[in-house]
Amino acid sequence: MNLPNKLSILRIILIPVTLVFMLPISIYGFEPAGWNNFIGNYGMLIAAFIFIIASLTDMADGKIARKYNLITNLGKFLDSLADKMLIIGVLIAFVGLGRISAWLLMIIVLREFMVTGIRMLASEKGVVMAAKMIGKVKTTTQMIAVIYLMFEPTIMKIFNISSSKINPVTIVGDVLFGICVIMTVVSGLDYLLKNLNFLKES
User: Residue 148 in contact with residue 172, Cβ under 8 Å?
Assistant: First the structure.
């Protein structure tokens, strides 16, 4: 297995590590107070740095693959899969924390199902689709929004802002997340319109 593919697998491995620091533990009444208190105070900040490392692997694997001609069908699949799992996993955690709307997350998830379905149809004809530029832009806006949302609690602590009130910090987070949802829809429509031939032939 080449280096870009190993970086994609590393990104997948970092997903549960990120989630462990985002969410307090609550399993059928088991709630370790010490750990959950630590997560409440510092967990999101740690998760943010882990997420940034995972995001950097996304940038690195593509550059390395292109530079050293290591582009493979497996690499295209793993890169796309790792991106989707990372973003959706973290956004589900934010829904659980009450920070973002489940309705908006469903738009993102349904878009990914649609794209995956088209890719499956294409693969039946021997075509493995790599991520398009608009898809990369979509992923970038998602990662920027997620990173901001992760640093949001720390920013609010620094400026002593109450999370129970509407404030500029959360408004910026809402705007960034809104942009990433819009780009998700736009890229999904672009993907659908440009690959209608696979649907028609099927």
Answer: yes
Q: What is the pLDDT of residues 154-182, one digit of tens each?
A: 999 998 888 767 899 999 999 999 999 99
Please determine, for residue 141, whether its predicted confidence score (pLDDT) is greater than 90: yes
Residues near 112 by beta carbon (within 8 Å), at least 6 away in sequence: 84, 88
Amino acid at 19: L
The one-letter code for the residue type at 44 is: M
Say how many domains are in the chain.
1
Under 8 Å between Cβ of 132 and 186: no
Structure tokens at 65: 């693959």
pLDDT tens string 5-27: 999 999 999 999 999 999 999 88
Domain CATH number, residue 92: 1.20.120
Dihedral Cα 179, 172, 47, 26, nearest 10 deg: -90
A 10 A CB-CB count for 124 gives: 11
Q: What is the DSSP letter of 76?
A: H
Domain that holds residue 14: 3-201
Q: What is the mean pLDDT of residues 145-162?
A: 93
